[in-house]
Design goal:
Blueprint lengths: L1 E8 L4 E8 L4 E3 L1 E6 L4 H19 L3 E5 L16 H17 L4 E7 L6 H7 L4 E7 L5 H18 L6 H11 L1 E4 L2 E4 H8 L6 H8 L6 E8 L8 H12 L4 E7 L13 H12 L3 H4 L12 E5 H8 L7 E8 L2 E8 L10 E6 L12 H11 L4 E4 L18 H14 L5 E7 L1 H10 L5 E7 L6 H17 L2 H8 L5 H15 L17 H11 L3 E7 L3 H12 L1 H7 L4 E6 L9 H15 L3
Parallel strand pairs: 4-5, 4-6, 6-7, 7-10, 10-11, 15-16, 15-17, 17-18, 18-19, 19-20
Antiparallel strand pairs: 1-2, 2-5, 3-12, 8-9, 13-14, 14-16
């Protein structure tokens, strides 16, 4: 199996495409095009999607994963994205495959990406013979309402009282709205809301075909014996009633597209691989499979395919492979477009949480572009088990080898670099400090809302900053009076938190025993060992930041270390954990740039 990554010339700008191919000199016959989830659901799903793509490539499939315009590593901003533009770009990709001799194409949608299947069934240059739906969004209007609720929920924590009606009125007037860090344009919202897998138009599209169509519908649940979601059953019955062959099943797994931690869903991967690799479309048509392995491949060499597909590459933003302990990690290097003198200091972004190298609301990508425009080279990468990089997820405490390999690759690509700054958010900040304390190549650290979690610390912070604030919330009291607050459950939760807050242990209770470390003590030891400069950025509306401040208040040694001249602290009182508004994100990038250029 081989992974390739490059830029394809989209209609309005370059699109990053990741391609997984079998280990063969020629391109395969069977192709699967992934249609990604929306916004941060795509980010949190990236590792699972990559795992599935690798499995299928090992079984002889070519799997193509495009980042749509304004998403992922592709060009543009979501504010300029359009539903029709995404369709045009996908059809352009499919058209290239047709030119290269590909005849078989299947579509694999995740969440909102499943809604893109309908226009592609109507307009694809190649016939579509199979649909794979992962936890499909059935109705675009409901999906957009749920997305807008992210804005109202964020407003409630900050004391605002925005409603969905207010947000839609604002969209009508201003034509776009910032939601969870994304600039959502009105035309895109309206076009998505017009799509539905349960509409009459969907049934017409599915049945008005000359070629047979196979549909595999897969959902995950912690208790799959309860069956498919009720709305899914209604939709599937409507499709089956229109003579569309739908095979539906539910497997054990968590909602990885919305998880706060990266989760594994092996049952979903296994079910998908079985569907695609044990019972090929050709067999379903009654065609006789050739016994020769070569019959599964086209005559065109893979090198010609890559040259045609990645025809829009540039040194300004270049995908690179990083070799780490026998695994190829995916990185993306940002070179300054214009530099008065060659830069000698580069920035390596260390990813944390369930994200990958792009970051929540594309924060890491946008940061890298802003720093590169100021003459500062940046490398973003996925460590093992994260994003597009293979191997099992190691956890942030065990990625020293990955960071070291990334720095070596960075220096190989930019030989003029003599020192590096690690930039990390949350557990990426703690991982960066741990590494920097032991590697002399690192001269500086930018640490945002560092992760020093323990059950005791988290419980105390929740009691002080969440529950206490709720007592002053009018919405809470309206819910209490209106019977919308589960009082017994709330009391049980409070009692549990009181018990944890009074605990004597400061060791985090992790699902992974390798992570059970006193992170505050580790932070003190590593900060004491690090001799470089530190920029510390702390949000005001973030429980992770409050837990860090609690640790600072209670640990005299940590307080002394943070008062050293080499440490600069900046408090952003209104910002949340991921700096999800443009003004906060831009301030982070600007403060990072000024700090980097001040020494």
């Amino acid at each position: 199996m081989a992974r390739y990554c490059g830029f394809f010339p989209g209609t309005q700008g370059r699109l990053l495409v990741t391609l997984y191919l079998p280990d063969h000199s020629c391109q395969p016959l069977r192709w699967l095009l992934h249609l990604p989830a929306f916004a941060d659901e795509m980010n949190k799903s990236r590792a699972i999607v990559a795992q599935q793509a690798r499995q299928l490539a090992e079984q002889g499939w070519a799997v193509m994963i495009p980042d749509l315009y304004g998403c992922g590593d592709s060009a543009g901003d979501l504010s300029a994205a359009r539903w029709s533009l995404w369709q045009q770009d996908l059809c352009k990709l499919i058209g290239l495959l047709q030119q290269l001799g590909v005849e078989r194409l299947s579509l694999w949608g995740l969440r909102l990406g499943c809604l893109l299947m309908l226009p592609l069934l109507r307009n694809s240059p190649l016939p579509i013979e199979r649909l794979i739906l992962w936890q499909p969004v059935l109705d675009g209007q409901r999906a957009m309402t749920q997305f807008l609720r992210l804005r109202t929920a964020a407003g409630l924590t900050g004391g605002a009282t925005e409603t969905l009606d207010h947000l839609r009125e604002y969209l009508q007037c201003e034509q776009q709205l910032e939601v969870a860090g994304y600039n959502l344009p009105l035309p895109l919202l309206l076009a998505i809301e017009a799509e539905s897998l349960m509409s009459v138009g969907a049934l017409v599209t599915l049945t008005a075909r000359d070629q047979p169509l196979s549909v595999e519908w897969l959902e995950v649940a912690r208790q799959p014996e309860r069956g498919l979601l009720p709305a899914s059953k209604v939709c599937i019955e409507a499709w089956q009633g229109a003579c569309v062959p739908v095979a539906a099943r539910q497997v054990v797994g968590d909602g990885f597209w919305a998880a706060q931690e990266q989760v594994e869903v092996p049952a979903l991967l296994q079910a998908t691989t079985e569907v695609l690799c044990h019972g090929c479309v050709a067999e379903e048509r009654g065609e006789k499979e050739s016994a020769e392995k070569g019959a599964d491949y086209l005559s065109m060499p893979v090198t010609d395919l890559l040259e045609a597909l990645f025809s829009c590459s540039s040194l300004a933003e270049q995908p690179i492979d990083i070799l780490c302990q026998g695994h190829s990690l995916q990185g993306l290097l940002h070179r300054p477009a214009v530099a008065i003198e060659p830069a000698t200091r580069g920035v390596l972004v260390v990813v944390g949480g369930p994200q990958y190298r792009v970051g929540s609301h594309r924060q890491f990508l946008l940061l890298a572009r802003q720093l590169a425009s100021a003459g500062i080279p940046v490398l973003r990468f996925d460590y093992r088990g994260m994003g597009d990089s293979p191997a099992g997820l190691r956890g942030f405490q065990h990625i020293d080898e990955d960071i070291s390999a990334a720095l070596s690759a960075f220096q190989q690509q930019q030989p003029q670099l003599t020192e590096f700054v690690l930039w990390g958010l949350c557990d990426g900040a703690t991982a960066g400090l741990k590494f920097a304390a032991r590697d002399s190549r690192v001269s500086g650290l930018v640490l945002l809302n560092p992760w020093v979690h323990s059950e005791k610390g988290a419980a105390r912070v929740q009691l002080q900053h969440y529950y206490w604030r709720r007592l002053y919330s009018a919405a809470f009291w309206r819910g209490l009076v209106g019977g919308r607050v589960d009082i017994p459950a709330a009391l049980v939760s409070l009692w549990s938190l009181f018990g944890k807050a009074r605990s004597q242990s400061t060791t985090p209770q992790s699902k992974n025993p390798l992570e059970e470390t006193d992170l505050v003590t580790q932070w003190v030891e590593n900060l004491q060992a690090f001799e470089g400069r530190v920029l510390l950025l702390v949000s005001g509306r973030d429980l992770t930041a409050r837990e860090f401040d609690l640790a600072v208040d209670e640990h005299a040694g940590l307080r002394r270390l943070l008062l050293r001249p080499a440490v600069t602290r900046v408090d952003m009182s209104e910002a949340d954990h991921t700096f999800s508004r443009r003004e906060w994100r831009d301030e982070v990038a600007e403060r990072t740039r000024r700090w980097l250029q001040s020494w």
